[in-house]
Amino acid sequence: MTFWQSLNKNVSGNLDQPATGDNNAEFVQVVATPRNVDFWFAGVVGALSTVSVGARAVAGYGASMCQVPPLFVCEPPGGFTAADVGKGMWMKGRNAGNGTAWFGGNFGLLQLPNQSPSAPALIGAMGMVDPELQCYGPETETLPGQHTPIRDGLNVRFDIYDGIARNDPQFQPSRNTVKGLLPGTAGGGSPNKCKLEQSAGPTQGWHVPDDANRWIGPGVTAATAMGLPRDTCAYLAADGGTETCRPVNGGRLGDSVWDIVNYMAIQHSGNALGVAPFFLDIDQYVGADPLRPIGNNDGRTSRWEVYRWELDDPANQAEAADEVEDPNCYTGGFPGSPPAIPLFDRRLLCIAVADCSTLGNGGTQPLTPVDWLTFFLVEPVGMLVGSEAADNKSIYAEFVGDHPDCNGPDSEIAKRVVRLFE
Fold first, then answer.
1. Residue 77 has what DSSP assignment?
2. Count of domains forming the chain
3. In angstroms, rounded to a whole number, what is the distance separating the alpha carbons of residues 256 and 266?
């Protein structure tokens, strides 16, 4: 029995670098000592009556990820790095054409374990706190197509309910649901109050302000409400963006430059900003009362950091119009009293990252994740944004990176399983 650090198909025996201790022992090789085996009837057919036989096997750990949505992204050239933290990303493109698929017919969806991708199954897989039987092993498969029901499942995390019970704890929202939408005006217990309106006209459900009071892009400052925005490069030029990190133009990963100035002015009007409009040191916030510092001293502030700052102290809650941070529609209650704010929030997604360079052109493809990383949902699916037509298909998120509750040693999501490699 020998322990090794890595597998390498280019070296003899496929094992590379003997382990020097427990901290780097990733694989174990077991080789059975050869022994002679007698074949009693071999002599009858003129074969050898005694043969020396042996055996060899290599095993290691693999990750089985549970309670995660059926989503994947293709890693960029060179993989994700620390420099990518805070960058926005189109995890899923909006239309079937124009190069918005990751590869032929695949838009970032995984097959559902142990069930067919029906509408109820997809809604549950995307939206439930604890999706039943939803674990992904070291190998899985892609699910081709767009599959519109993903919208309803993901949007419960923003307190938006379309055909889903508002009192089911399995479909609870995040504790911070600010999204740039105003509450619906439908009266009584009408289910329309908690649906998503996809135009600027109707107001029965969650809706954007009228055009005169809408924030439509980085170049517009007058607005009644504003959610955390995309990177500036992800907006159309007509809305003040550059379009350089939109899938239709061949880009998915942004540059972390987002309109934090207007967001702070609209949602936190009592606090002005200092210099450096997009990249902020933690001491650059000023106001009537000192704000709790946000950021991590890397010279910039991500949307995830602002979101957490809003959650951590009631004094930091967003203020715009009638949109409040706390859920407006959900009635099911939260576990615990008072409810704890979980570190791994409902707007964080633990996502499979794949090397897509070896995958085929279309249809269902085998997929082996090279990593599981964390992304922060920036906006609801299907929300009317800028001058774009609303759609039910695109997913825009911010890259957070490694997160201990996603793939750390104490994660309740990651399950370590023994895997036979050879």
1. T
2. 1
3. 20
Name the residue with tokens 């199954």: 121
How far is 420 from 3, CA to CA, in rounded Å? 14
Q: What is the mean pLDDT of the chain?
A: 81
Length of the chain: 422
d(CA 121, CA 129) in angstroms, rounded, equals 14
319 domain-assigned: no
Give the pLDDT confidence of 181-218 residue by residue, as tens digits: 988 888 767 888 999 998 887 889 999 888 888 888 88
Q: Return the half-sphere exposure (C-beta side, CA atoms, 13 A cut-off) of residue 349.
A: 27
Location of structure tokens 């499979």:
352
pLDDT tier for residue 161 given thresholds of 50, 70 and 90: very high
* CA distances, 184 to each of 85, 207, 322 (Å): 35, 7, 10
Q: How high is the pLDDT of residue 80?
A: 93
Would you say 244 and 252 are in contact if contact means Cβ atoms under 8 Å apart?
no
CB 360 within 8 A of CB 106: no
Environment class of residue 331 by beta-carbon count within 10 Å: exposed (0-12), middle (13-18) or buried (19+)? exposed
For 2-27, what is the HEC assignment? EEEEEECCCCHHHEEEECCCHHHCCE
pLDDT in the model for residue 108: 93
Quick one: tokens of 9?
A: 């198909």
Tokens coding 375: 């992304």
Nearest to 13 by CA among 24, 21, 2: 2
> What are the residues whose beta carbons fall under 8 Å from the beta carbon of 36, sequence distance 6 or more?
50, 51, 52
Question: Is residue 44 included in any domain, yes or no?
Answer: yes
- In terms of residue numbers, what domain contains 41? 2-63
> Cα dihedral sign for 346, 347, 350, 351?
positive
Q: Is residue 396 part of a domain?
A: no
Span of 129-138, 186-195, 246-255, 380-389 with lowest mean pLDDT: 129-138
Which region among 12-16, 211-215, 230-234, 278-282 has the lowest average model confidence (pLDDT)? 278-282
In a domain, 49, yes or no: yes
Alpha-carbon distance 324 to 234, whole Å? 26
Please give the average per-residue pLDDT across 158-174, as a whole number. Answer: 91
3-state secondary structure of 62: strand
